[in-house]
Specification:
Layout (H helix, E strand, L loop, with lengths): L3 E4 L9 H16 L3 E6 L9 H14 L5 E5 L4 H13 L3 E4 L3 H13 L22 E4 L6 E6 L3 E6 L7 E3 L7 H11 L4 E5 L5 H12 L5 E5 L2 E2 L15 H6 L4 H9 L13 H7 L10 E2 L2 H14 L2 H14 L10 H8 L6 H7 L12 H7 L5 H13 L5 H15 L3 H13 L7 H6 L3 H21 L1
Parallel strand pairs: 1-2, 2-3, 9-10, 11-12
Antiparallel strand pairs: 4-5, 5-8, 6-7
Helix pairs in contact: 1-9, 5-6, 8-10, 11-12, 11-13, 15-16, 15-19, 16-17, 17-19
């Protein structure tokens, strides 16, 4: 059997982390079997579906690299097909028109709940004569005997009694088809063999299976994955920070890191933590998905992100880093290559956003100094060390990390002082702050004349402080 899976989000908001994990698992099912992966946009809720939400879903899928073989397919473009099959079910007496008013249905539900019963439609219109011209919905005639049984890849055998399932509305009063019906028709027409979705859909599954059977369509296999919890054990939401996939990009995460994190958020292969996409494809099995809910752990994601910043080709990381510099309005056309920045800074930060923020001094003028660092290190006592190291650096005919380090070391020896008394004032002078990669590589990444000009600025700062004291 050729495997066909799908990701079918509703475009009522951004692509969230839970949806992205479902998309990843569905994509892996198809990739592992050499099958087909389809993207379907379930936009029948016209009031809540928006084009910006559709764009956000497509952007998120593209950023994560979850390429689809077909799609995006929009349900709103398939209304004729839904109507055709609704008419067929009516003709076969597998569906019927329901004329019950909203008031009657509300009263019925209130009475059922007051009696401790599960609210469900009572079938009042199942055998009622047609009432031409009267507003109505169309309900699926659910079997009243027996049960629906399916073997879930994650949860095992699941059974629902048909007596627990009421006659589902498959077309609204205005004639538009409803979610559960459209899903069945789409899965059938698109040849979907495996449905991976959240556990919140488990109650929909028996209803959909009965519609499949009524249409004479093959029933796909199901895998219902658990929800994702926040660090506090509650359902993941905005209060836990970023939940939109593109927010993770904006906050400086690499797509490789988020994918790796998401695949482990409910699935495992021994104790392995780091997976390339090829490894995910070769190792992934639906049966290895954990039934228990998974807790989001930002520290683990940060660890993975730093791992990928350090181990991916610097050119790949630099491409993503360029976007973050652009967000800061920093022009990186003049200065060291972004690959150089990645090599210098990847060990020192958790995200690309941090990397861009702490690396601005490579591309922008240093016009002022961090007050705390300046107060501590740009004191009058540092003036002689800065002057001497400036002279030695200016005299260098070869501007590289090795010669720069020798010039700094020679300054320490000549003045008979420790490295810190030269290095820290020099670091504040050339970067504007007290933190940077090692001084030799930091200075080597700057033009010689820029480094000299910044040291002169620091010396002027020291002189001014001296005059004011």
């Amino acid at each position: 059997m050729s495997i066909v899976s799908r990701f079918a989000p509703s475009p009522t908001g951004y692509l969230h982390v839970g949806g992205a994990r479902t998309a990843l698992y569905s994509w892996l099912v198809a990739q592992a079997a050499g099958g087909k992966f389809i993207l379907r946009i379930e936009d029948t809720d016209r009031e809540r579906s928006t084009q910006p939400a559709i764009d956000a879903i497509l952007e998120g899928m593209q950023w994560l690299g979850l390429n689809y073989d077909e799609g995006p397919i929009y349900q709103t473009q398939r209304f004729d097909r839904y109507q055709q099959l609704i008419d067929q079910l009516l003709a076969e007496d597998k569906a019927y028109k329901c004329y019950c008013s909203v008031e009657r249905l509300d009263k019925m539900r209130e009475e059922q709940m007051a009696n401790g019963q599960k609210p469900r439609y009572d079938g009042a219109c199942r055998d009622q004569e047609a009432q031409p011209g009267k507003p109505h919905v169309i309900r699926f005639r659910n079997p009243q005997e027996g049960s629906v049984v399916f073997d879930d890849h994650v949860r095992g055998r699941i059974e629902f009694s048909n007596q627990e399932l009421d006659d589902l509305i498959i077309a609204r009063t205005d004639g538009t088809p409803t979610y559960n019906f459209c899903v069945v028709v789409d899965d059938w027409d698109m040849g979907i063999t495996h449905v991976v979705r959240g556990e919140d859909h488990i109650n929909n599954t028996p209803r959909q299976i009965n519609i499949f059977k009524a249409l004479g369509a093959p029933v796909p296999e199901y895998a219902h994955v658990s929800m994702i919890l926040g660090d506090d054990g509650k359902k993941l939401s905005k209060r836990h920070g970023a939940v939109s996939v593109m927010e993770y990009r904006d906050n400086g995460y690499l797509p490789q890191a988020l994918l790796n994190y998401l695949v482990r958020l409910g699935w495992s292969h021994g104790d392995q933590e780091v997976f390339s996409v090829d490894e995910m494809i070769s190792l992934f099995k639906l049966s290895d998905i954990n039934k228990a809910a998974s807790a989001f752990n930002t520290e683990k994601l940060n660890w993975l992100n730093q791992h990928y910043m350090k181990t991916l080709p610097a050119a790949d990381v630099a491409e993503a880093l360029a976007w973050h510099f652009a967000q800061l309005g920093v022009d990186t056309s003049q200065g060291p290559s972004l690959e150089t920045i990645v090599d210098m800074q990847a060990e020192r930060v958790k995200t690309l956003k941090e990397m861009a923020e702490i690396s601005r001094y490579f591309f922008e003028e240093v016009t002022e100094f961090d007050p705390g660092a300046a107060k501590k290190h740009l004191r009058p006592v540092a003036g002689s060390a800065l002057s001497l190291v400036r002279d030695k650096l200016t005299a260098l005919t070869s501007w590289n990390a090795g010669d720069i380090q020798q010039a700094i070391q020679a300054t320490c020896e000549e003045l008979e002082i420790g490295m810190g008394k030269v290095g820290m004032p020099l670091r504040v002078a050339v970067t504007g702050g007290g933190n940077s990669p090692s001084l030799d590589v930091t200075l080597a990444a700057l033009p010689q004349e820029v480094a000299t000009a910044r040291i002169n600025l620091a010396l002027d700062f020291i002189k001014l402080r001296e005059e004011q004291s």
